[in-house]
Amino acid sequence: MTVAHQTERRLRVVCDGEQAAVLRIAIATRNNELADVPFGRTPMFAVYEVGLDASSLRELIEFAVPPHRCAADNDNPDDCEGRLDARIAALAGCQVLFARCIGEAATAAAMKAHIHPIELARNETVVALLRRCQAMLATNPPPWLRRAVGSPGAIAGARNGTELAGGVRRGADPLSVTATAVGGR
C-alpha cells in the first residue's frame, strides 16, 4: 500500500508592494515562531523572502502529520513512498532550508533541487534565523550562498561598515555557532 503525501494546505501572502528580496528560505516549524522540527516530520514550512533590510512571510505550506510507519526506523519504506519528493517539490523556488534535523536522503534531494539544507544544532526562533540570513547577506556571504542567489552582484547592495539588526557587524559569521551546513555545494 502506498500512502499519498501531498500538501494538505498552502497559504500564500499577497502583498501590495514588493521588497528587494535576495533570498527565499524555508523553515521547518510547528507554529511559525520556532524552528524546532526535523525535515521529515514537520507539519509546516514557513517560506520567507529575505532582503538586506527586511524580510516577509510569503507562504505557509502545511502537511498532514506523517503516520508512525514513516519514521526513520520503518521496516517497510514502501509505505512512505513519495513523502520526500512531495516535501522537496513544495519548496520549489527556495534557496535555503532550515530544519532541526535533516536526513541523508533529504539532504541529497534538497541539493539536487538547488536548495541548500542547513541543520540547526538547537531550536532557533524564526526571527533569529531571518536576522542571521540578513546579516549573512550583508557581510561576506559564503560561496554556497553566492551561488544560491545567482551572482555576487545580487548581494552587492550591502551597506559598507554598518551594524545590522541584533548587533551583528560586517564580517561576522552569523550561522557558525548555531547551525551546521549539511553537505557541501
From TrEMBL:
Pfam families: Nitro_FeMo-Co. It comes from the Bacteria. The keyword Calcium does not apply. InterPro entries: Di-Nase_FeMo-co_biosynth, DiNase_FeMo-co_biosyn_sf. Coiled coil: none annotated. The lineage of its organism: Bacteria, Pseudomonadati, Pseudomonadota, Alphaproteobacteria, Rhodospirillales. Keywords: Nitrogen fixation. Residues 36-133 form the Dinitrogenase iron-molybdenum cofactor biosynthesis domain. This is Dinitrogenase iron-molybdenum cofactor biosynthesis domain-containing protein.
